[in-house]
Amino acid sequence: DRVNITVSDSGTGIDEKNLANVFDPFFTTKRTLGGIGLGLSITSRIIKDHGGDLSFESALGKGTTATVRLPVKG
Predict the structure, then answer these.
(1) Where does the pLDDT of residue 74 fall: very low under 50, low under 70, confident under 90, or very high at 90 and above?
(2) C-alpha distances out from residue 36 to 13, 30, 40, 66, Å
(3) Whether 57 contacts 13, CB under 8 Å
(4) What is the value of pTM for the model shown?
(5) DSSP category for residue 29
(6) Which of the residues 2, 40, 52, 71 has an alpha carbon 20 to 30 A from that of 31?
(7) Coil, strand, or helix at residue 56?
């Protein structure tokens, strides 16, 4: 009754203190690179509006896994 989409990388990971804030509007660790911190906030809202959810698991130095869960509507 749900579709799960999981994407993983082997990048630098997200610090636990930052992971708790990734969905907050205007939160970014990349402001010096031009980030404004709206991408995940907007993405999460769109997914929730469709009855789904977005979550992250991450380990510093090992990478991050993002999972989108959406309901199947028939």
Answers:
(1) low
(2) 19, 8, 11, 20
(3) no
(4) 0.85
(5) S
(6) 52
(7) strand
